Amino acid sequence: MDEGLMKTYARADEVFVSGHGAVLQDSTGREFLDFLAGIAVSALGHGHAALTEALRDQVGKVVHLSNLFRHPYTERVATRLCQLTDMGAAFFTNSGTEAIECALKLARKAMQMRGTPERTSFVALEGGFHGRSLGALSLTWSEKYRKPFQPLQKVTWVPPEDVGALKAALAADQPAALVLEPVQGEGGIRELSTSYLQQARALCTATGTLLVHDEIQSGCGRTGRFLAAQHAGVVPDVVTLAKPIAAGLPMGACLTTTALADTFAKGEHGSTFAGGPLVCRAALVFLDEIDRGLLGNVMERGQQLREGLEALQREFKIVREVRGRGLMLGLRLHHSAEAVQKALYKNGLIVNCTATDVLRIVPPFVITAANVQAGLQRLRTTLAAFPGSAQETP
Predict the structure, then answer these.
(1) Looking at residue 309, which CATH number applies to its domain?
(2) Does pTM surpass 0.90?
């Protein structure tokens, strides 16, 4: 297996060949409930009819042009994203990591334009994850990701929710930007409080620091609002998006406020593949589904799923905490998270383990009530099989 590939992934043995909605089917015909969605990517699930039709149509016309030429969809996607996020301009990328790299370059350039070119460092949060390229990796907290590739960009980390530490770091370092995830994904589905997000916004404004929100995992509606920070009423200077934005195709975006829209001059940033007609058609299908009320299903199924997880917490001692909102949820366990994840996979439920002790549950936005109920039942059956997991009866 994996012949010809660099050995960078620990992959399951099954070969998945098709899917419908929140269900995947492997080459033997066995079906799995997909509560991972390609790590929070496949918002429209698998085999979505409108997406299939749009992509077939576009493949028959033109797949790639480069950004030297125009196609009918670039401005349509950019305008709709800006309207949904209160931003002023978009730069399209092929991934979330590339969107972060764009944000870092933009912050550096903005400081030069302000006459403070010495402001080149960044502040980030402990537990954060922002990607694996050298710039994005510099902001990623876990040493296991960074250590083999040091030295990296100068970054100061502060603990989440510690406003005093953040204030001190911004004052001492005078960074180009503060970069944070409103909901830390790899950090264990850890949601930052409304108060902290609002105070971080105020501190960045007061110190002239750009506020960059990484909503690659939490954005595009996964928490029930298009941006997770909208629950707190906070507008950053820059926001990065990716994962579900093109319903499974590789696409990201770096969005800025109107004040920063002209930071890059022509030729200062670019991408060969980004924002092509095929991915933009996919993005339009996704955005059309948002307009048709898809986030209502995110909220309803998210509430159903959360209530079910909270019931499991009451029933099983192994469950320590339920985290997150919408369809970005985490089940924090006292022990055996990796073992539980593997057992769930054997029982036909796909989730993954993050931050060592949290089961990450990020299903497609199109998940049904029956899918949720079936997934909760498989969770219950699996947890019950672990010794000593049941709560004692009073």
Answers:
(1) 3.90.1150.10
(2) yes
